[in-house]
Amino acid sequence: EVQLVESGGGLVQPGGSLRLSCAASGFTFSSYWMSWVRQAPGKGLEWVANIKQDGSEKYYVDSVKGRFTISRDNAKNSLYLQMNSLRAEDTAVYYCARDLTGQWLGFDPWGQGTLVTVSS
Amino acid sequence: SYELTQPPSVSVSPGQTARITCSGDALPKQYAYWYQQKPGQAPVLVIYKDSERPSGIPERFSGSSSGTTVTLTISGVQAEDEADYYCQSADSSGTVFGGGTKLTVL
Fold first, then answer.
1. Which residues, in sequence order, are CB contacts of B48 under 8 Å at separation 6+?
2. Which of A70, A96, A99, B88 is the Cys-Cys partner for A49 at CB 3.0 to 4.6 Å?
3. How far apart are the CA of A24 and the nearest CA of chain B, in angstroms?
4. Could you give the CA distance from residue B90 to residue A44 in angstroms, rounded to a whole number?
5. pLDDT at residue B92 in the model
6. Does B18 score more than 90 pLDDT?
7. Under an 8 Å CB criterion, which residues of B touch A?
8. Does residue A36 sit at the B interface (CB-CB below 8 Å)?
9. What is the CB neighbour count within 10 angstroms for residue B3?
10. What gap in Å lies between CA B89 and CA B100, rounded to an integer?
11. How many Å apart are CA B19 and CA A120, to the nearest integer?
12. CA dist., res. A33 & res. B8, Å (int)
């Protein structure tokens, strides 16, 4: 079964840091672009970042550039999101997702999500 | 930045047909994808490349494209189809999601 499982979310103070992880199973992880997508409480979906199969290309939404870093370890079938200088507006459920097309479209499957709350 | 526009809500009675639209200037040049999200759950891909249906998705889900608008059609709506639906497409600056449409089954 193709599966993604996120972990690492929690409550953090503004300005703090958090590292999210996504464990992949059931498919050849190293063959796919991977993305992080977030959803603020009661809001829609927002793409956050993605990374090429070998980690050589990474892209970010403008609002997180310079603060978030996406990475992957293909030997461990794992995706990561290092989040620094967190702000209240970063509060959201963070999902990892496999990019089926390699064209930043067609995300399937998605993990169950991990909640990040930025508050003092 | 690129935007995809969806109606905030659509309501239908069971057995009727629901149509959810998504408009964007780049849609004539780029495929659209559709996701279903039920409360407390992760999104699920229901339509890819404008009109293709992934395995396991019921046949009542279909997609179409015309100019700058794509449409998700759910024929014979069932109570279990009540959910939020999001379109997705891309332009040169990256991928973007529509604002989402809440489908209510009356």
1. A100, A101, A105, A106, B31, B33, B34, B54
2. A70
3. 16
4. 16
5. 76
6. yes
7. 30-31, 33, 35, 37, 41-45, 48-49, 54, 86, 88-90, 94-100
8. no
9. 12
10. 13
11. 43
12. 31
- Residue B56 binned pLDDT confidence (cut-offs 50, 70, 90): very high
CB contact under 8 A, A61 and B94: yes
Residues of chain B positioned with their CB less than 8 A from the CB of A111: 42
pLDDT band at B91 (very low <50, low <70, confident <90, very high): confident
The Cα–Cα gap between B78 and A17 comes to 43
Which of left, alpha, beta for A55 (phi over 0: left; psi -120 to 50: alpha)? left
Q: What is the mean pLDDT of chain B?
A: 95
Hey, what are B57's tokens? Answer: 């998705």
A27 touching chain B per CB within 8 A: no
Residues ≥6 apart with Cβ < 8 Å to B92:
none
Query: Both ends of chain A: CA-CA distance in Å?
Result: 40
Partners of A25 in the beta sheet? A3
Please state whether B104 falls in left (phi above 0), alpha (psi between -120 and 50) or beta: beta
Segment holding A100, helix H or strand E: none
> How many degrees, rounded to 5, is the angle at CA A52 between CA A49 and CA A58?
40
Identify the closest residue of chain B to A112 by CA–CA distance.
B42
Given a cut of 90, whether residue B94 has pLDDT beyond it is: no
